[in-house]
Structure formats: structure tokens, C-alpha cells
Amino acid sequence: MITSFEWTLPRGTVIKGKWKRNSYRVERLLGEGANGKVFLVERQRSWYAMKIGADTVDLQSEVNVLQSIAKQRKGSRAEPYLVEVDDMRALDGKEYPFYIMRYIRGATLSDYLMKQGMDWFPVVGYSLLGKLAELHDGGWTFSDVKVENVMVADYGRVELVDYGGVTAMGKSVRQFTEIYDRGYWNAGSRTADARYDLFSFGVLCIQLHESQRLAQLTASLLPQNRMPEELLKLAHANPRLKPLTGWLRQALNGEFKDAREAAGSWRQWMHRPGQRHATPAPSWMKGLFVASAALLATTIYWLLNS
Amino acid sequence: MKQILLITDGCSNVGVSPVVAAAQALAEGITVNVVGVLDQGDLGEFGSAEIEEVARAGGGLSRLVNTRQLAQTVQMLTRKTVAQTIQQAVHRELQQVLGTSSIESLPPDKRGEVVRVIDELGETSKLRVALLIDGSASMKPKLHAVEEAIRDLALSLQARQGQSEIAVFHFPGSAYGDDCTLDLDWTTNVGGMTQFLPRLQMKGTTPTGPALMHVIDFYRKADYGNRKNDETDGMMSDYVV
């Protein structure tokens, strides 16, 4: 349930931080999370993403997580994610907290695959598993893994967005979306562990290929009949997902030890024999073959007759 | 922390006003949340006004939803109320220690530590939620969804690190003259149970107020029983009365 505010900021609005006095010019709305809105903003000719929160404690809690992750990654090559934290005054006269983060240029996962083609799915999936494994190494789960929270930049490079759900392992998951939730499918607890994210990842794979059938399924199933087996049936019926059913079964039943093991198994699936020739020859190739055969026949006929 | 979550679809019509009962609950340290369930038609102006007022008197929140959103709403209200209760306690502390009454008035660099404490308490403090279900005739087709929402809530509470328990009541009571009946005593797990609310036809009245009083009394008795051999309410008992 979204507990956000109603207003938005028109293009060109200048926001000045209450404490640090830095100004940002609003370009457009990038997205809406469970507890705030994210805008694309500009400051000194650099682009940033600005998340404005509806609730100070909620947003600060998210900032705390981002700061802990940044501290853990100090010394690594990763670019800093969090840039600044401040408050602003909106037109309704109230003060709202915001933070500034690195702007991730890219498309949402489903847009990307729609535009670039499903051939990118295995690579992007592998890259996403890597991102999750990185987060898990630090003792966190992402928790709210879903299509909307995965951005893809050029060449299938993946970034997770909306850290509002990130939870320390062993605690109760802070934010989730029903159809991606392990508890909703009667497949386990809502305690944060690596397998919780892998479950959501499994649902995400199905969502990407069979979004309509998945929506129908969730609308028609009785609560007590929601089970991973039902999700696997959808996967099995889809030609692209069918070879992945074994992997999905392990993810949805919590059989992978962690995201690294899941990624390793994913990689094997990517490189399995036959995968590279899985797609039928394109029609232009068939056309070329027919043309060259015809040419050969003509040549032979001509040679024999001369 | 103690909460009552009232799930209803109409107006009370007998006994003490539920607004008075909710105010009494708050006075005894129990927050009252109210969810109004509407599927066909609406609650009417009077019903929705009552729902809002009961929650306000009980220091809690209210929402009007259809059965599809019920599970999510119940979960969200409980979580929000836990956060709110702790924030109120922390605000009092802030006032004493720093002379400021809100987290918002602290500069962002100073908020981190306070919020860390709030998050930690929200996860680890002991929590009890008594669910009070309106079982009048018009609610009958919705009881499936209500049970589902209760199961979902129990699942979320089980994931907390702190001890969390729920109890379930419905009203009007099954026996003649009872305002309200206990269906499920304090428990942490409703996993295997598929149906715990009775489907029998009950009396036509909706004694929301008396039922609330009954639950407050139930809490009072539980506290009395606990005081003798249980001092493990932890640090929250210092904060939340």
C-alpha cells in the first residue's frame, strides 16, 4: 500500500535544502516507491535522483541502510550511491525529508527486454543474481525484488533501485509486494534471508514471460492453494521458461543455499549445450539458402548444357 | 505494546458507544485501529464517520477497504501503529534529553541514531494484537477474507524478532447475552487453521462498544496474571504505559 503524498513537482522547480542550502532543479518524475517519490534533478550540470519521503523516520531508516552499505563498500570501486540528505519545504507548507543519490540511466527491466529482445533475459538475470549476491554478502536482503525495482542500462547492466525494503538478515522483511512474497505463496516465512530474495527472483522470471497468466492465476487461486507448484506450471507451459523449470523449482522451494550457488546454476543453464542454437534460423537465412540452392542448380544446368 | 484491531462493516446499535470504549482502551495503553470493509454498496455516511471516530479516540488509524485489500491493510495498520507507538515514546525521550519534541527538528546527521533505536524497538519489543471481528449477518460473506487477513498478519508477526501474539474475538457473542466471544486465545501461530470464525447466524445486534469493553477486560486480566511471574516486558514497559 502506498502511503505517499499527492503532490508532484513541475519541471523547473528549484528545491533548496534547509540544512545544507544546496539547490536542485527538477527535471521530471522518475518513479514512485512505497514511501516516497523519486525525481530527476540537476545541480551544477550533473544529474541526480532525488527521493522525497512522506515520513521522516521511514526515509531516515532507508538512509541508515544506504549509509551502512556505503561504509561496507568503502575502498571498493563501486561508485557512492548516496550523495546528500536534507529537508525541503513543499508548496503545501509542510517540510519533507529528501536524499540525493546517483542517477541510474536506464530502462525498467520489462521495458528493456521489450525493446532489446528476450535474448537479453539470461544475461540480465545473471547480472541481477550477482547484484543480489553482493548485497547478501554484506548481510542484507533486498526483499522487494520486482520488475519495477530493476533498472537496466546499456548492454544489460543491472541496478537495483528503491532500497526501502532492504532488511538485515534475520529480521522481518520491511517491504514486499504480494505476488513476489514467499509468505503469500505459502512457501515460507517473511524473515529476511537469501532464499527470500531468490524466491522473488523466481516469480520475477515468470512475471517477465507470463505476466497476464500470472495475474489471472493470483486472481483465481484460493489463498490455501497458493503454492510454488502453481507458479511452476506456468513456467512449464512457456517455451522460453520450460528449460529453466528445474532452476525455478529450486529457487521457489528454497533449495539454493545462497545467491552465489543460484548464480552458478544459472550460468550452467545459460551455457548448456543447445542453448546457442535454441532459436530457429531467421527467415532471411532460410531465404538466402533457397536462393543459393537455386543459383547452384542454375549453374549446374548451365555447365551441363554448355 | 497492545493493540486492538476492529474489523467491521457497519454501525453499532446497542450498549455503550464504541467511541467511549476506544477512549478507555487508549487510557489503558491499548491502541485501537479500525478497518471498515465494504464490498457491495457502502457503509453510509454514519458508518464511516463512526469508524474514523473510534480510531481517533483509540489513538489508532482507520481505513475503508474492500475484501481484496484487507490482508494488506491489516498488516500495514499493525506495522504503522507499532512504529507510531514507539515514536511517541521516543519523542518523549527526545523532549527530556534534547529538549526537542520531534525527530524532524533534528538535523539529518543526528537523526540516524534515533531512527536506529526506533527500528530496533519496532522489531524486538513484545507485541500483542487482539482482533475483534464484527460477525453480524452482513459480514458473513466476508469472513473468508477476514480469516485470510488474520493468517497473513500472523505470518508477518512471526517474522519479528520480538515476541508477538494475536487473539481473535467476534461479536455479537454466540451465547445469549454475550457481547463477544473469544475464538482464539493468545497464540503465535495460526498456520494450520483454516476456519476459526463461526459461520452460525447470530443475533441481529451490533454491540461494538460492549465488545470493545470485553476485550479491554481480557487484556486487564491477562496483565494481572502476568504481573505475578513475568517481568519480561523489557524496556518497552518503561516507555509505553
From TrEMBL, chain A:
ATP binds at residue 51. InterPro entries: Kinase-like_dom_sf, Prot_kinase_dom, Protein_kinase_ATP_BS. SMART domains: S_TKc. Residues 24-306 form the Protein kinase domain. GO terms for molecular function: protein serine/threonine kinase activity. The keyword Nucleotide-binding applies. Pfam families: Pkinase. Keywords: ATP-binding, Kinase, Nucleotide-binding, Serine/threonine-protein kinase, Transferase. It comes from the Bacteria. This is Serine/threonine protein kinase.
UniProtKB/TrEMBL annotation, chain B:
It comes from the Bacteria. Signal peptide: none annotated. Gene3D superfamilies: von Willebrand factor, type A domain. Coiled coil: none annotated. Residues 1-86, 128-241 form the VWFA domain. This is VWA domain-containing protein.
